Records
---
Amino acid sequence: MGSDEQIRKQGKAGDPEFECAELPPHEEAQFERQLEAQRKSHAETVPQHGGQAAEPRVGVYICRCGGNISDVVDVEKVAEVSRLIPGVVTAKVHTFMCSDPGQHTISDDILKENLDRVVVASCSPFLHEETFRGAVARGGMNPYMYEHVNIREQASWAHRHDPGGATNKSIRMIAAAVGKLKDARPLDQIKLPNHRRALVIGGGIAGMKAATDLACRGIKVLLVEISNRLGGRLNGRGPVYPSEQDAGELVADFARRVEAHPEIEVRLSSQVTTVSGFIGNFRIVVEGLSADGSPLKEDATVGAIVMATGFRPYAPQTGEFLYGAEPCVLTMPEFIRHLQNIDVRARQLFYNGHPIHSIAFLHCVGSRQLDGIHQPQPDGSLNTYCSRTCCTTILQQALAVRKRFPETEVFDFNQDIRTYGRGEEDYYTNASKAGVVFFRYNGEEPPTVKRGCKSAPLTVTVKDALTWGEELQVGVDMLVLGVGMIAGDIPGLIDSMKLATGEDRFLQEVHPKLRPVEVSVPGILLAGTAQGPMNIQETLCAAGAAAVKAAALFAKEAVELNPYVAEVDTALCCGEAQCVTQCDYEGALRMVQVEIDGHTVERAQVNPGLCVGCGACVAVCPHRAINLNGWRLDQFDAMVDGIVADIPRHECLSDLVAIQ
């Protein structure tokens, strides 16, 4: 989360009917003064808040979530029963626990009730775990003595037709959380040295945008580009939509800013060959050619990495729609380059010395592929996704042909038209007005292309949905394949950095809405089409977001990480190294020599910067010598005990809640 002020002002995300009930300024100031006074008083009575008190004092807070929970779960009954769980001092219900008043309730109760543990039963922890952790910390309690229970997705939404069962399940989940917290220990964030320098891999439009945004914030940047110039796929592209600005001008403008900025170092004709380390301390090796052409090898340490490695255009297989068999079958990038090389004064389109009187554009080549219809890729996979930018690109080029060469007929063969961006639908409208003829085919019956006669070298046959499935044949002089985007060829980086990829083989973010430019490896961020098909506007936005996230990592002298990592008890460790063998994260666990009772022995040691808290090491240790902070084995035992424990019957409880 951000500052305390941001946390206080956060309301119910995504609910248009919810209005956050903020305190008036004078009451807010008074509340803060009271809170600080109580915090000081509380610090005297509880020396280490959230520590090991004689008897745990747990506060339970249940959220109605505006009806998302309370429409199914009897939250009042849950609170009533929760008060009977040993160790629970208070249990309260609020319509929106994430709101200002809800958070104030938690922080205020910590001080008034001398709470040393807090359970919040609400929505997914992905949404508000950090929100409540901030509220707990403002109350003076260790933020890791708080447990989040998801009774929305796991109870009310999962059992909407069984309110009684959902209520019982919520009670048992809270009981498990209370049991876990009883054996909890205060934890502190892991703080690691932070090298205030960023690596940007890729010198296309995304890489240049990320580099300049970081440099403008005073952060040193090392920009590595595998080719001999900046610009990536935009080089030689011609006008870009929807602005129709020349791509060369756009690239030149960004390149000037990159090359002129004193905080940016550029390495052309170079590539990153080795990446090791962790957030704040990545060690990299860059190999390439220096300005004079001599081999270059450079070691560097950076704090964050921005992956702006881009995409590749789909390469049709030989014979696919006669590509490679007929010279007049081109991919879209090839056609754009050809069009750029034609004199702007020319009024007749030629290719290989032959006049082109008719052109067909074919959509979805290499995208939206179907099993049994399309030929798999060399790795056996299909590109089932939509590449998103092809439709508008085809319409842009079709319109350009009609404007420059009005005597050339243009035919468009599509499954459907997806001009989703602002101003892009105009290309479809204008192409229709300019005389482009559209045919629509079913994805299961794509057009076929055969050699034609002398007057028309190619014949495209299609079952046209716009004429109710009539089979039509169109003779054309040229066929342009609207090829899609496929993931960049970076297997070495993916392996060395242990990056996740999706089914589409693009780099995968943690969450498309909550963490859209972050990967599962802390300190590594995504920019542009390395993540998936995007147009230029989306690419620039993603690159800017990645730069902001990277800059946030450098805002403090030390990198602060959650403490949920493995911890070795050297008294129990016998040095068998099964944990090291099982660990998938190189360097996270290693065997080191230590002195015990005058003898030098080997024991496992955890690198907290590389450990991701997966727990694989815990599962294989035969001596239970390794645990995860915040999820120790005894805490799992306590959760099970909490689920099955008898809760004292209360005379006010109805039959709705079946207490054991």
---
Amino acid sequence: MKERTLTNFTDLGLSAPILKALQGEGYVTPTPIQAKAIPTVMTGRDLLGIAQTGTGKTAAFALPIIHRLTANRRSAMHKGCRVLVLSPTRELATQIADSFRNYGRHVGLTVAVVFGGVGHVPQVKTLARGVDVLVATPGRLLDHLKGRSLDLSGTEIFVLDEADQMLDLGFLPSIRRIVAHLTKNRQNLFFSATMPPEIGKLAEELLRDPARVSVAPAATTVERVEQRVLHVEAGNKRNLLVELLADPDMTRTLVFTRTKRGADRVARHLVEAGINAAAIHGNKSQSQREHALASFRASKTRVLVATDIAARGIDIDQVTHVVNFELPDVPESYVHRIGRTARAGAQGIAISLCDAEERGQLRDIERLTRQTIPTEDRRSAPDAAPLHASPGARDKRNNSHGRNRGGRGGQGRGARDGWDRGFRGEQQAGGRDSQDRGTRDGQGRGARDGRDRGFRGDQQAGGRDSQDRGARDGQGRGARDGQDRSARGGQKADTHAGRSGGTHDRDRPARRRRPHRGQKHGGPRNNEPRSGHHASGGGNRADSAVVAK
């Protein structure tokens, strides 16, 4: 049977005062989430609603809640509320409360909003009288519960809005403590833009036989948003942002940063460049945040620089552009950020500035949104690493064969056969590749193929492509068959090699070595052939395993 399509609010069965308020707001046609959720909520059934941001989730639960309250009019209990709505941020809480006031203006609802950053006493006085709808953030609500200025035992409807952001902000323990104060005989409504597993688990705990309403796959990006990524060095992001804002079409732009301090720095840089900008984040006072939002809504401020507190549910009309100055660590936040534009059927543009260290976040975002975002290279360095290189990859210049800093053709300080100064290689103490810690082909302990244990990428002063200071072709003090004087592992500073055509070493007499197995005290140590090789690095205990028969 084909489902009936509801194309007008009058088809939803809402009361006349609510329809009158909607008409005053200019709303005629419900959004998909509203058309599906409103009839279900009006029946009193629990609901789990999933829709991308900017699709009208607030009206999807506010309108049927007001309808239910007016159908069963009664006064709220002392210090109590009939409806509790939890919101993750102050700005969203204020917006939800305003929506309830606007939609219920003709039914005489009492609405209160409770959050931190403002005086505690006025909120206590408001709650003492009891309210129909209470919109609150979890922290301040718990303060009122602890102070016994709020009683939730008579709450009939519980709404958790932006449930996934509650999870991101670490509010789940607080939510569970709040739910413990609610009566079990209540209606539960969960609304979210995404549905991570943790929220699904919480929904199973709190919802009773819920109806599931989903109008878009989880984390699907707003289709009307034109997206692109600009690859740029981290130090050039601010200058590039100023260059982008020279576009007169960017009349109302939201810029997102990861940190509060970063938001302040970006806003100051824009103001110094002659661009009217303001910052909003958690360290701002409530009056500062409200003033910045009001100025941005009124187009007095052209650019609003914000952290992710403004990415959820803040309904600002006609945002032309969203700029991700820094990509978010949580890929779901990207969806909510760019959802601030292209609202109410309008078009929008989202631009992300990505440096080399953020390419991992970019891949996570593309994996989550199931799309490849068009990119543009805006880096100033002509020899920058290719964009397909993995984050943190070493510049090719430092890893080229036979070349690195200070050398040509494998020679020079820190260069040897294409091994750059960052190389620790596969050389561990004692060497590998069938070479024991004692000796191989005239190389001392820890040496392998002309690379001794003392070499550490940028080779000690005096080492140069198997040639040491003052030594050529195995001649000179401290040189021995491709080993420089930085060699360690059994060779001391007084070791002399290549004298009189001999291949033996003289160890310091101060250190007495234990004779090898089958060798008498005082006998020769280093001039015996071992397993078909010539020894030259001085004996040690590990060598006994090689020469023992």
---
Amino acid sequence: MNRFEQKIFDASRQTILSLYGLDLTEIDYTVEKPRDRNLGDYALSVPMKLAKTLRKNPFEIAEAIAAPLPELVPEAEQISVARPGFINFKIRQSALSEVINDVLEAGDSYGRNNSGNGKKILVEWVSANPTGDLHCGHARGAAWGDSICRLLEASGWDVLREFYVNDAGNQIVMLGESLTSRYFEFFGKDYPLPENGYHAEDVRQIAYEIARRDGDKWLDADPQERLAYFMEEGKTLELKKIERDLEYYGVRMQSWIHETFFYANNRERINAVLARMDELGLLYEKDGALWFRSTDYGDDKDRVMRKSDGTLSYLTPDVANHVYKVERGYPILVDLWGADHHSYVTRMKAALKALGYPDGTLSVDIIQMVRMVEDGVEVKMSKRTGNAITLRELCDDIGLDAARWFFVSKDVASPMDLDMKKARTKDNDNPVYYAQYAHSRMAAIIRKLPDFKKQDNYPRLTDEKELQLLKMIAEFPSEVAACAETRKPSRMTDLIISLVKLYHSYYNSCKVNNPDDPDLTNQRLGLVRATMATLKNALYLVGVSAPEVM
């Protein structure tokens, strides 16, 4: 809630407690925005929720609640009651315009809020296999997850950004074999490249890098020792490349947890989780395998934890991983998984619930598929390499800011087509260009009129579009909090476009520079500066730059 909403909310709760002796902590109600702006800036519908409890007409309840509110909400110019039981509030211009100095004083911090109240949350995303380049699907998830973290951090959450490295499976063996084959190739020797290995150019380049660095000493080495070396070196070099690509993309990770960590010390952490599950009666043996009674916790069938050959299912180390997250002091977990993991959500939540963790410990956002499209035709392969388009190739093509914007502007719960031709354009049909151009246009005004003086108030900002801008800017912190709470960065891109449209409309109808009226010019410059700062901060939250010259 912004400060006006909070003031209205607190005043209404106080009044209801005083009038009726009701504590509304258990009643879900909010300060709303009327569909018709002529009715006011904010509204309460709580009288209709109280009608049944109080056995009174909601309109009468609304009148009673509204009576003392002018003293409790002096920021309201007008408080009115409307049938069937609404209380509407129109905010004074003087109260709205106070936001200009709030923004100018806060600067890059404007929009930050404490709705998270320091709660600890661990967000795991990307988590690509360390066997090749990040591709466009990873780019969508990486942008979404990073924006979630930025929003949470701006809302006062204690966030840990984590990448889970899948490095204990057969894919790492195949990476080692593929690198060995390419290493032999460098020296003109034959070594079979596995059919289901990694044939991409980046793997060849890593093998050649090892060959140039180590020479030919691995050609005649012990095969097992050589494979172990290439597996470890390949994984290490691929992870370094992934980390560089993420940093280039504006994505910062704080923690890298390896699947092999859970296999260390003879599977110490995995065995501890299995023992705990066994003590709770969650496991049973059947056909030589160890099963989890996941159907008791909402799954459609029981799940194997240890196969009859003694190897573990994918689920087992994953459960150990999530237990470890909570053990490190993070009671709230968020995972971003690919569309092929949809059925995996229920079994993971079932495991955590069975182990005694409360509902809501784990939330999972599923990243649906993305297609690159140009002129209505899907573009599957890079023209340069003939392989899947990588994150870097995409950013080199359409621009980093365009990639970040387009991937967060549509909810990841839905598949998307990224129109590459549109993303490349430098006109107002491209939403990221449209938003950045507005910021550069504001910066140009400030460069032209640098002598702004902060005022105690801005009483001449009375045009309807000015009032709308002031209100939208005032609501920005609560919008940041709402985007963080819902984990919906796409709401922020919608807000950015709404702010930019409103600013362009204002700029076209109200002259900022009025040489014959320096006082009005100064007040409007204050509004431009506040709008510019808000736009810059909003763009940052979705990982997009705010250029001052375009």
---
Amino acid sequence: MIAKDPPARTGVGYNNTVDLDPCNRVGPPAVCTSTFGFTVSSAGTGTAPASWVQWNGNPTTSYKLVTVTVKLGGTTLATRSAVLSNY
């Protein structure tokens, strides 16, 4: 048996000039619009430096904290945060 190399994977860093919120893109995915009344929002994804969220005292040009929140009728159902790195 001959081992095959795994397919090449390309890492995609973030770009401070691109809005990372998928709900703000043309043709938002179905997760952003719910017929059940859920709202999906994000923080730290905008293109303006004032919208970036610092993580652990590091500069936002290297690391950003992104948070996605799902709510229903004002009640938070889920919150997930992730740190994006650019190095």
